[in-house]
Each structure stands twice: as structure tokens, then as C-alpha cells.
Amino acid sequence: MARFPDPQDEPGDGPPEASLDAAESLRIIAAQRTVVARDTTPDGRLIFGVWGVAWLLGYLAMYLSSDESHAPAPWAGAAFAALLASAIVVTAVHTSRRSAGLRGESSRVGAMYGTAWVVCFVVGFALIGRIASWAVDVEGGGAIITIASNGISCLIVAALYMAGGAVWDDRRMFLLGLWIGVVVTAATVVGTPYLYLVMALAGGGGFLVAAVVEHVRAVRDGTPGRARTREA
Amino acid sequence: MADGDLDPVIHAQARLRIMATLAGLPAGDEISFPRLRSILDFSAGNLSTHLRKLEEAEYVTQTKTFVGRTPATYVALTPRGRRAFETYTESLSALLGGTPT
């Protein structure tokens, strides 16, 4: 392939341009598209990974520390809350870094989607709070509170993952939401204390499988996580 | 088709990388000048020079705005620029005779 000079580069325009051939140009385009995709979209391995670990360890602690009345130890509840809070912080920081400096249609879609999570959980916690205030005085109320709080929270997660999959035409995200819906239905039916075990293994495990699938896809597509640590 | 038929505005390494980056963003999105610079790893002067050429060809727009009190510039591909980039990539494939490396 013949190389030729770039006719647009007059003197004084900075360093002279290297001339290009067609194959080199296509390679540059492909490489640049890979870099853009990797740098401006969230890494599913990190997001699914932190949620998988949080659910697996948190629910497992709740299950293993449950006493005869199916009530988990306070330390397990605190550990679970800390794991979920960490996953929320990692998700929020990571997605905001990846979308830094971008604005327009997809930023508006992302902002609306993020707001939907916040609003749904505010409604969910209000509902859980009301149910808990009634159930606390009822015989077997602990199980009611557990099933309601887990079911309401995970219903929101399942619904918004499926909605996100629909919005972005992302089959993996949709399937993950679908799977969480199946798992939460099963956990709700079996009730305490096995609810925690189902959520840990099938729910947390589902996220971890999704993280592995993302990793396989990233390696196949040649977009392994960025080695650069410079921030946007 | 000869090499010389390739769009000379795009067919230079620096501008090709800029165009490929902007085309890689979803249509309707804009990117801030510093973020674009960080993805491309260009100097500010070099990026400005090439963006000006792309702007003269009406392939990109540069929107000056304020984020809080800080001035900010957002860069986006125009519909004309997106079409030119598609034509360019199709021409490359045609040049290679359907045997991409």
C-alpha cells in the first residue's frame, strides 16, 4: 500500500503528520473505538463483582448467625449494611468517573435511571418501615419483616435491572434482572432462615456469574480493564 | 478508487483518532475538551489545532459554556461529520478490497 503525505498539514500546524495507509487507518479506528468504549462505559466486572461479594457474604452472615427463632445476630446485620453501603459507593464513584466530561442524550438517560433507583428505594424503605412498625408486635413478626424488606428491596433491583436492559438493549443486564426476580420469588416462598441462603448463593452467585461473563466478553473483544490509573 | 480520494480532512492520524473517538460516543452526546484530551493523550495546543480544522470542515462543533463558574468547552460530531466518517471508513474497506487485516 502506497504511503502519501497528508495534504492538509501546512507548516506551523504543529508536528508534521505521519502518513497513513488504509490498513493502518482501519486499525487506528478500531483501536480508538475500543479505548472509548473502555473509558466511558462502566466496567460490568467491577459493578457486578462488588454486588456479588456484598450479597454472598452479607446474606451468608445473616444465615449462619441466625438463632432458633431465625433472627440473625446484630453483627451480621451491621456487616451486611456495611457491605451494601460499600457496593453503593463503589457503583456511584465508578459510574460518575466513567461518565465525567460527557453530556447529552445518554447522560440524561443515565440521570433519569439513577433517579429512579433513589426514588424507588425511598418508597421501598417507607413501606418497609410501616410494615415493620406493625409486625414488630405480632407473633412471628420477625419473619414478616425479613420477607417484606428483602422482597421489596429485591423487587426494585430486579425491576430496574430489567428496565435498564430494555433501555440500553442490554440482554445480559435484562437476564440478570430476570434471574434476580426468580431468586427473590424462591427466597420469599421458602421464608426464613433459608431465604438468606437462597439469596447468598443464587442471588450473590448470579452477580458473580455475570461478572465472569463480562470478563470473558472483555477478553474476547480485546477490551481488558484499563491499565492506566489516570482519572478523568 | 485511489488513495487520494480519501477525505483529506480525516485522513491524518491525529484527526482520524479524534473523529473515531467522537464517532465512538453515542449519537447526541458531547464530550468536554479535557476529557477528550485525556482519552487521546494529546497536548491542548495540538488538540485545539486539529479541532479547528475539523470545525472549519463542519465535522465537529465546539460549544463554549460554564460549569458553575468555570468555562468549559464541549465537542461533538455534527451529522455531516458522522456521515463523512462513515464514508471514509467505507472507502478504506473498499480500498482494501474486502480483505481487512
Topology:
The complex is a heterodimer of chains A (232) and B (101).
Chain A (H helix, E strand, L loop, with lengths): L21 H19 L3 H21 L9 H25 L3 E3 H31 L5 H27 L3 H20 L3 H27 L12
Helix pairs in contact in A: 2-3, 2-7, 4-5, 5-6, 6-7
Chain B lengths: L12 H12 L4 E4 H8 L3 H13 L3 E8 L2 E8 L1 H17 L6
Antiparallel strand pairs in B: 1-3, 2-3
Biggest interface, and residues per chain? A-B, 38 and 42 residues
Counting helices, strands and paired strands, the structural category of chain A is mainly alpha
Average of the residue pLDDT scores of chain B: 88
In N-to-C order, the SSE pattern of chain B is: HEHHEEH
Helix share bin of chain B: 40-55%
Straight-line distance between termini of chain A: 38 Å
Shape of chain B: elongated
For the biggest β-sheet of chain B, the strand order reads 1-3-2
Q: What's the order of the H and E elements of chain A?
A: HHHEHHHH
The helix count of chain A comes to: 7
Provide the β-strand percentage band of chain B: 15-25%
| N- and C-termini, Cα separation of chain B | 19 Å
Q: Which regions of chain B are unreliable across 5 or more consecutive residues at pLDDT < 50?
A: none
Gyration radius of chain A, in Å: 24 Å
- What oligomerization state is this entry in? heterodimer
Beta-strand segment tally of chain A? 1
Protein name (chain A): ABC transporter permease
Keywords (chain A): Membrane, Transmembrane, Transmembrane helix
Organism (chain B): Georgenia faecalis
Protein name (chain B): Transcriptional regulator
